[in-house]
Amino acid sequence: MDDRSETPAAPPADPQGSAAVIDRGSHPVSRRNISSAAIKVLYRIKNHGHLAYLAGGGVRDLLLNRTPKDFDIATDATPEELRAMFNNSRIIGRRFRLVHVLFRGEIIEVSTFRAGVRAEDAEQHSDHAFRTEDGVIVRDNVWGTAAQDALRRDFTVNALFYNIADFSIIDYVGGLEDIDRRTIRVIGDPTDRFTEDPVRMIRAIRFAATLGFDIEETARRSIGELGETMQAASPARLYEEVRKLFLCGNGERVFELLSELDFIEPLFPELGEWLKDPEGEAGVHWIRNTFRQLDRWVAAGLKVDTPLMFALLFGAYHERRAETLCREESLSPAAALQQATHDHILQLGERIAIPKNDRARIARIMALQPRFRKTTPSRVHKLERNPQFLDAWLYFKFAAKTFDRDGKEVTFWEKRHRGEGG
């Protein structure tokens, strides 16, 4: 399939703004690198007389010669019009109404161009858009043009469109220049954009780490100044973004950026405060090693369970709290680890919506740790039958290496489960 061989008609002009339009001969994006499902959706929307653009991170990744994780589409068709086009679709969301077009093994997400609503204009659009008194957007369903849609996106590198009508790249915000500069730049004023959606600060850090880009200086300053606004972030979105952040495959760089931007404490207040204390020095070593291990697993294509991720991330902190509980409340090591973990994760859950089942699994991973030191046959077989055994073993193995806890128990379990977890 040669994109240069066809000369389809140009799309209608966007009256709301001018864009840099890069024709097919001047950029590397080809339909060959776009999933067949996304191509089908793009062409059906186009053939129904609507604009059909590949949008956002998929375009960015294709320009960087990276394989996109998913392909999102933007259009001037409304969700109801899209639903009528695709029998295999459903309308989802309230904060952002989207259409999912369902294929075997793939979901193509299609959004209608949105205008974005300024705080002073929100009242007249109250049925479709809503901001809290702090300026946080909690609903955004005011339809607009492609130009308006680009301007309401978070970063310039995520606001590029690929037009299936003529295979051009459309850039309203200077995203192509920022890709060349390897810069994460906020569209608009960073303070305003981070205030209306604090999760964007986490996304800036993740994109910078994943892409090897620098965060533009004004945005860096704003992140350093706006940490307390994370309290207004949606706990459910925060959970998803934290998972993406720590399992992005570039966790070491994530930790560097979190430290440079003094952003650990806004995300995890207790952990951040402890790491600044002299006794938290070992915790810095632990967390750095945690990210290295997570990166190794991701690079090897292994699926990392979220409970194991959180258990590792907070492990040193939970172990130190458990030591205090053993001394002050005369709890057994297993009971102390389970209580210390449960209490902290429950507290954390007020800010990050960790599912109840995951919270229980994190606590069980920690509670099982002392049992690895009891190697009689009956205890060994009982432990190995525990549903949480593998994650608990990976934690035990990691902790032994990180804190040089080499001993006969580690050797014993290594022989039984050599090679598991890398």
β-strand percent reads 5-15%
Would you identify the CATH H-level superfamily of the largest domain? Beta Polymerase, domain 2
The CATH topology of the largest domain is what? Beta Polymerase, domain 2
Structural class: alpha+beta
The number of domains is 2
Mean pLDDT: 89
**What CATH architecture of the largest domain do you see?**
2-Layer Sandwich
Distance between the termini: 41 Å
Question: Outline, from the CA principal axes?
Answer: elongated
Helix count? 20
Query: Strand order of the main beta sheet, please?
Result: 1-10-9-2-3-6-5-4
Rg (C-alpha, Å): 24 Å
Helix share of residues? 40-55%
For the secondary structure, the number of strands is 12
Largest sheet entry:
8 strands, mixed
- Top-tier CATH class of the largest domain: Alpha Beta
Uncertain segments: 4-13, 118-133, 135-139
Structural notes for this entry:
Adds poly(A) tail to the 3' end of many RNAs, which usually targets these RNAs for decay. Plays a significant role in the global control of gene expression, through influencing the rate of transcript degradation, and in the general RNA quality control. It catalyses: RNA(n) + ATP = RNA(n)-3'-adenine ribonucleotide + diphosphate. This is Poly(A) polymerase I. Keywords: ATP-binding, mRNA processing, Nucleotide-binding, Nucleotidyltransferase, RNA-binding, Transcription, Transferase. Its EC number is 2.7.7.19. The structure is a single chain. The protein is α+β, with helices and mostly antiparallel strands and 422 residues long. The chain folds into 2 domains: 181 residues, Beta Polymerase, domain 2; 149 residues, Orthogonal Bundle (cca-adding enzyme, domain 2), CATH 1.10.3090.10. 48% of the residues lie in helices and 11% in strands. The protein has 20 helices and 12 strands. The strands form 3 sheets. An 8-stranded mixed sheet has the order 1-10-9-2-3-6-5-4. The protein has a two-stranded antiparallel ribbon with strand order 7-8. A hairpin with a 5-residue loop joins strand 7 and strand 8. Helix 7 packs across helix 10, helix 14 packs across helix 17 and helix 15 packs across helix 16. The longest helix is centred in the C-terminal third of the chain and has 19 residues. It starts with 19 loop residues before the first strand and ends in a 6-residue tail after the last helix. About 7% of the residues have low confidence.
